[in-house]
């Protein structure tokens, strides 16, 4: 990482590490006023440019995709978001003065000489936008969450950031929703989850006492109850995985000729599952950005087709099971996505990988309000084998050209509708 001026370093650290202060702060970007950025180069040569955005760089990846993918948003910013200005050399320093528009919440930038780049170790330089009282404007800290994720900040640091936003702006209801989502996602035991649910209920009751039982507050509670239920399985899964791993270590230490009974049979199944998991990991890593493998299918209503028939439309390919709790929980989100965007061409093709009798399956999907096409694989695993499916649900989002653009957790839950919002907005 290149060196920056002492002034810039002080500002950067203050923005990322300090709690909200009621006192007037120093040289920081203030809404509606000009702001000067200073840079002292070491590797950059010649004409140095400042490249900056307000609020965010791009919408290709969300925070769930991880730091590296978030940084790809910087490299592939949405059209029209970035501004590039030449910096003025004064002695050994370079400066640029920019105007901070009213209504923006966060400033992010990097430096370049056209060949080399100072991205601040793939974090960019970030600052809240402040009001004239020296307080970060509403949503500044909320916007900063993605940048903290990109910088590899700890979950606790991110939770503290959102909490500071709520402290200054208690009626920022979206921040309340994200705060409790992060709390539940980072709880490690069932007891901790239960305690945090009690904390959420207590905090909600206090908000109702202060602001009344509004529709917004009802939705805050609905959101954290959903996030609690979505995370309740995780500690159990961790315990199960740890037990399975110890089981495999013990069985691996026993020669095959000395293994017997159900333990030998279960061990063979685990080894087969491990191979499939490994195949799935490799397959999915190679699938992203490439054309989705084509296949033929017959739906439960007798309609025949091929995956490639969905070309020219955004299509979600789902692998699921009627006995999978997380799959059932996703149906509501899938219904929302389908109802919102099917009229614009969005399609879903679901492949059910269990042995539910056909009539029972049709009744089940009808009761759940599922309107899109369903394939019931049964014992014929041709499609799931083609995609090396290892877990349910598996989500694969395919663009109109047949290319895979999002996978798995990137489009689980509310993130699916959010991603479709971005895609259909950008296609206008």
The CATH homologous superfamily name of the largest domain equals Immunoglobulins
Global outline: globular
- Count of helical stretches: 13
What summary fits the major beta sheet? 5 strands, antiparallel
- Taking all residues together, what is the mean pLDDT? 89
- Low-pLDDT stretches are 1-25
SSE order: HEEHEEEEEEHHHHHHHEEEHEHEHEEH
Could you say which structural class the secondary elements and strand pairing correspond to? alpha+beta
Task: Report the sheet-strand fraction.
Answer: 15-25%
The CA-CA distance between the termini, in Å, is 39 Å
Number of strands: 15
**Count of all domains:** 4
CATH secondary-structure class of the largest domain: Mainly Beta
Helix content: 40-55%
Q: Please give the CATH architecture of the largest domain.
A: Sandwich
Radius of gyration: 25 Å
- The CATH topology of the largest domain is Immunoglobulin-like
Q: What report would you give on this structure?
A:
It is built from 13 helices and 15 strands. The protein is an alpha+beta fold and 428 residues long. The protein folds into 4 domains: 6-152, Immunoglobulins (Immunoglobulin-like), CATH 2.60.40; 170-232, no CATH class; 235-284, no CATH class; 296-426, 3-Layer(aba) Sandwich (Glutaredoxin), CATH 3.40.30.10. Strands 2, 3, 6, 7 and 8 form a 5-stranded antiparallel β-sheet that branches. β6 and β7 form a beta hairpin. The protein is globular and about 80 Å long. 25% of the residues are buried. The model is unreliable at 1-25 (pLDDT under 50).
């Amino acid at each position: 990482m290149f060196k920056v001026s002492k002034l810039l370093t002080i500002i950067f650290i203050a923005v990322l590490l300090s709690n909200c202060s009621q006192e007037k702060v120093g040289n920081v970007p203030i809404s509606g006023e000009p702001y000067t950025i200073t840079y002292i180069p070491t590797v950059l040569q010649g004409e140095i440019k400042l490249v900056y955005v307000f609020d965010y760089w791009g919408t290709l990846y969300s925070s769930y995709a991880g730091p590296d993918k978030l940084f790809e948003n910087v490299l592939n910013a949405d059209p029209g978001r970035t501004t590039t200005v030449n910096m003025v050399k004064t002695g050994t320093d370079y400066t640029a003065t920019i105007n901070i528009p009213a209504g923006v919440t966060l400033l992010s930038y990097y430096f370049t000489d056209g060949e080399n780049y100072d991205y601040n170790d793939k974090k960019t330089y970030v600052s809240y936008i402040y009001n004239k009282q020296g307080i970060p404007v509403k949503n500044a800290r909320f916007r900063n969450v993605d940048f903290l994720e990109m910088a590899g900040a700890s979950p606790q640091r991110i939770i503290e950031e959102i909490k500071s936003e709520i402290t200054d702006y208690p009626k920022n209801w979206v921040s309340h929703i994200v705060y409790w989502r992060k709390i539940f996602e980072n709880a490690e035991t069932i007891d901790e989850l239960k305690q945090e649910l009690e904390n959420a209920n207590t905090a909600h009751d206090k908000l109702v006492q202060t602001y009344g039982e509004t529709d917004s507050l009802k939705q805050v509670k609905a959101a954290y109850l959903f996030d609690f239920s979505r995370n309740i399985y995780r500690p159990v899964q961790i315990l199960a995985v740890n037990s399975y791993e110890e089981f495999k270590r013990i069985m691996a230490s026993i020669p095959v000729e000395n293994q017997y009974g159900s333990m030998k049979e279960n061990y063979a199944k685990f080894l087969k599952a491990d191979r499939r998991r490994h195949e799935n990991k490799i397959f999915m890593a190679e699938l992203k950005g490439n054309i989705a493998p084509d296949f033929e299918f017959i739906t439960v209503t007798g309609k025949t087709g091929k995956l490639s028939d969905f070309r020219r439309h955004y299509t979600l390919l789902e692998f699921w099971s009627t006995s999978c709790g997380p799959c059932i929980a996703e149906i509501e989100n899938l219904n929302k996505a389908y109802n919102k965007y099917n009229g614009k061409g969005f399609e879903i093709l679901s492949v059910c990988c269990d042995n539910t009798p056909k009539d029972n399956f049709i009744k089940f999907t009808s009761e759940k309000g599922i309107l899109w096409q369903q394939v019931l694989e049964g014992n014929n695993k041709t499609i799931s084998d083609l995609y090396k499916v290892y877990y349910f649900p598996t989500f694969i989002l395919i663009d109109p050209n047949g290319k895979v653009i999002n996978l798995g957790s990137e489009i689980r839950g509310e993130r699916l509708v959010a991603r479709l919002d971005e895609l259909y907005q950008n296609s206008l």
